[in-house]
Specification:
single chain, 230 residues, alpha/beta, Rossmann fold, 8 helices, globular
């Protein structure tokens, strides 16, 4: 059957209804964020549950020891990721805007996750090399990341991949949001926007990389799930 715009909207609503159960904090978080002047941007609850599930399956099913998130914003996706970690797991999340980072810090604390979350403020392309140096120096709780999640500047996705690939453990997961759309849609013509072209380049880069096995999941605005095989 043809996937019409209405059918896509109905399908997305169904997935949120059935698989997007939230607790009270998560169901009210974005209302608090908007009231505080943050943009109303976050993954949907069904995507959040997928992030938690995937994170819990890493590290031989014991949950991720170390997670990197690029793009904290209000902390919504970070809470889902942190809830999938091993009991001693650590989430490092990178946010460019200090005001957003401060709001997210309060939400992580409210969720009882404050001790498990390290918020780094700054541009991701500048913060990632600092984190890489800390990994090499042994000052982080694991030798490599079990999960890395991209949800930041779309035009920077290919460079994020170049910088983050060496930081991901064999068997670890690279997950990326918005691989089908955001302010664009992937079937827009090439050259129609820098965001569309950068995400398309990123998708093809990971799919062609022999060190990864990757799949694109058409949920919300598209999620990439790529497992590092060596």
């Amino acid at each position: 059957m043809e996937m019409t715009p209405q059918r896509w909207a109905n399908t997305s609503a169904y997935l949120r209804e059935v698989f997007g159960r939230e607790d009270e904090q998560l169901s009210t978080l974005m209302a608090r964020a908007v009231a505080a002047g943050l943009p109303a941007i976050a993954v949907s609850a069904d995507v959040g549950r997928l992030l938690k599930l995937l994170t819990s399956l890493t590290n031989s099913g014991r949950g991720a020891r170390l997670v990197l998130e690029l793009g904290t914003l209000a902390g919504y996706s970070g809470i889902w990721l942190a809830r999938g970690m091993a009991p001693s797991g650590k989430l490092i999340t990178v946010e460019f805007e200090p005001r957003h980072a401060a709001f997210a810090r309060a939400e992580f604390d409210r969720a009882g996750l404050g001790a498990a979350v390290d918020i780094r403020t700054g541009a991701a392309l500048e913060v990632i090399p600092v984190i890489a140096d800390q990994l090499r120096a042994g000052s982080l709780p694991a030798p490599a990341f079990d999960v890395i999640f991209f949800d930041a500047v779309k035009t920077e996705y290919p460079e994020y991949f170049r910088l983050c690939k060496p930081l991901l453990a064999p068997g670890g997961l690279l997950i990326a949001d918005n691989i089908l759309g955001s302010s664009f849609w992937i079937d827009d013509p090439p050259g129609s926007s820098p965001q569309r072209d950068a995400v398309d380049a990123f998708n093809r880069l990971v799919a062609a990389d022999p060190d990864f096995e990757a799949a694109g999941v058409p949920i919300r605005e598209g999620i990439m799930i790529a497992r590092k095989i060596r």
